């Protein structure tokens, strides 16, 4: 993750929330989606109940009505505006249930639209304080649904449950202190009646944490910090320290060590593990914190019942480039070494595509998925560690800044937050990647509560004149790239694949595009009027297949893209839900 300019006070003024007094809590049974429904989301095409279209977040649909032979005929069914002056980035993934589409919007808003007509049913605006310090735009990536509730997080680090039919508040809980730099932008995940959430704020020295809360009351069940030395909690009682104090951190550095869990996680019912990625260590200046700095830039396998860490794999030990390890680990099963294995795939910000044994966190494969990587020249499969290129680590600062190095990928990552997709039809992963590098240097820094804690400076540069974004189809068996589509601007939105031999993703130029999943041929595109940085979904209703995506340019690129930001500064902001289908013959 990375720090962004603080927003002006008038940009975060409290928003009027059109809600009455909190409604009484209703039992989940019979009121809407259950735990079983959420776990079965992959197999119920009439709904989209989870972030990722299933607990494993493979973002794959078995629907074939819209396919590679007819997608060229797809047309808009309707569009619904998020309205107002609060445009900014719209990174949400829609949820669809019982004739309603739920989407979150910038500035911590939640909307319910009629799934047939696009008519707004209700809108909730969180009342945000003036002093919030979100790192990388005022985005929100989605909600969770359970029983009679729709649940999402806010930029002032609160978790809010609303009645899904009325938009009225059921419960509202503070999960962290926004004055210390914490915020919340990820979509919550629900496992066994628990709302599983992470936090944002690693650029402020805020310590990453995973929390499990009762879905009906919002009360904390367990918490698990992601930095060694911090105590976990279970039902209000100490539940063991994470790792071992000072094992990989010196002195008191672990107290402000970063490792924010700002993207949320995935869940694997087969192993009963939550896979949660962790962000960069704080500060960025690696010379100030010798050691591996566990468990930053890692994936953690966490028991959802106890909050205990069962295994951890660190993709960038002693990170010095802001290579957050938050990117999703997607569970999948495949033959490997002559036997069927329970695996997980992760396209990391550091430029490597990892295959991990998801039962124990052991590295199986690490291959580059971008054209240029300077910080390491491969991974040792026995130790699981990278082969560093020491000359390409930013130099230690003296009185002022240290030696500048050119690094690729840039800190915005070979892949940032935008989720990839795994096709059960082709067996390939479809990864939205970016080709850029950066000049980076270290500077002196001291921790101050609520202030940016970087100790580094940077300038991002594109690697090529004709493209930055590249959608790549990757064979997990070999790590080889089967096909790629190059885009002039960075790719910053999620990917959807379907059994109709299709792959969907959006571009900052405003297009939602469809590709042949096997060949990569572009089959269809539609311009939504603003950059697409949301995640598309698909479902069926009354015998028709629909595809939906949020449109609205923003996110980290225009804030922190350097030369890249200048190249895309002409793109208009927006805020709209677009829904498509085939025309009736």
TrEMBL record:
GO terms for cellular component: membrane; outer membrane-bounded periplasmic space. The keyword Zinc does not apply. Its main location: periplasm. CDD domains: PQQ_ADH_I. Ca(2+) binds at residues 203, 280, 322. It comes from the Bacteria. The keyword Signal applies. The active site is at residue 322. Disulfide bonds join 135-136. SMART domains: PQQ (SM00564). Residues 50-362, 463-547 form the Pyrrolo-quinoline quinone repeat domain. This is PQQ-dependent dehydrogenase, methanol/ethanol family. It comes from Sphingomonas aliaeris.
């Amino acid at each position: 993750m990375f720090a962004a300019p603080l927003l002006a006070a008038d940009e975060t003024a409290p928003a009027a929330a059109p809600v009455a007094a909190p409604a009484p809590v209703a039992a989940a049974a019979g009121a809407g989606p259950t735990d079983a429904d959420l776990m079965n989301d992959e197999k119920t095409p009439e709904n989209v109940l989870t972030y990722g279209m299933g607990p494993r977040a493979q973002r794959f649909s078995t629907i074939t009505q819209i396919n590679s032979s007819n997608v060229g005929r797809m047309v808009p069914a309707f569009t619904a505006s998020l309205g107002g002056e609060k445009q900014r980035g719209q990174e949400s993934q829609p949820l669809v249930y019982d004739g309603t589409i739920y989407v979150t919007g910038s500035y911590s808003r939640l909307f319910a639209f009629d799934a047939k007509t696009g008519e707004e049913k209700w809108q909730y605006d969180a009342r945000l304080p003036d002093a919030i310090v979100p790192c990388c735009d005022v985005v929100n990536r989605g909600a969770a649904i359970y029983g009679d509730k729709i649940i999402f997080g806010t930029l002032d680090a609160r978790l809010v449950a609303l009645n899904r039919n009325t938009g009225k508040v059921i419960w509202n809980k503070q999960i962290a202190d926004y004055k210390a730099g914490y915020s919340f932008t990820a979509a919550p995940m629900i496992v066994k009646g628990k709302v599983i959430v992470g936090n944002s704020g690693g650029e402020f020295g805020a310590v990453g944490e995973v929390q499990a809360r009762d879905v009906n009351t919002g009360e904390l069940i367990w918490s698990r910090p992601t930095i060694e030395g911090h105590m976990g909690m279970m039902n209000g009682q100490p539940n063991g320290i994470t790792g071992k104090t000072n094992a990989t951190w010196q002195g008191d550095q672990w107290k402000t060590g970063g490792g924010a869990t700002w993207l949320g996680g995935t869940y694997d019912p087969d192993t009963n593990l939550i896979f949660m990625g962790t962000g960069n260590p704080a500060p960025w200046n690696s010379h100030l914190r010798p050691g591996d700095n566990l468990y930053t830039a890692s994936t953690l396998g966490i028991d959802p019942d106890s909050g205990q860490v069962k295994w951890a794999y660190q993709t960038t030990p002693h990170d010095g480039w802001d290579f957050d390890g938050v990117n999703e680990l997607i569970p999948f099963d495949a033959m490997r070494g002559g036997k069927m294995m329970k695996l997980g795939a992760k396209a990391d910000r550091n430029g490597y595509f990892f295959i991990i044994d998801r039962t124990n966190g052991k590295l199986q494969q690490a291959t580059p998925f971008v054209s240029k990587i300077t910080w390491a020249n491969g991974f040792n499969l026995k130790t699981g560690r990278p082969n560093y290129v020491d000359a390409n680590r930013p130099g230690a600062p003296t009185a002022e800044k240290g030696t500048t190095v050119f690094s690729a990928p840039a800190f915005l990552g070979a892949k940032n937050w935008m989720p990839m997709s795994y096709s059960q039809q082709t067996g390939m992963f479809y990864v939205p990647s970016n080709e850029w590098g950066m000049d980076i240097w270290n500077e002196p820094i001291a921790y101050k509560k609520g202030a940016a804690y970087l100790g580094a400076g940077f300038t991002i540069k594109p690697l090529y004149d004709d493209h930055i974004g590249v959608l790549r189809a990757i064979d997990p068996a070999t790590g080889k790239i089967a096909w790629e589509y190059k885009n002039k601007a960075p790719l910053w939105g999620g990917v959807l694949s379907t059994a109709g031999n299709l792959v969907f993703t959006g571009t900052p130029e405003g297009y939602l595009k469809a590709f042949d999943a096997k060949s990569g041929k572009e089959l269809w595109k539609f311009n939504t009027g603003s950059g697409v940085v949301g995640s598309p979904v698909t479902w069926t209703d009354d015998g028709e297949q629909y595809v939906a995506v949020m449109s609205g340019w923003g996110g980290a690129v225009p804030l922190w893209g350097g030369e890249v930001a200048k190249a895309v500064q002409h793109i208009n902001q927006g805020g709209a839900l677009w829904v498509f289908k085939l025309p009736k013959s």
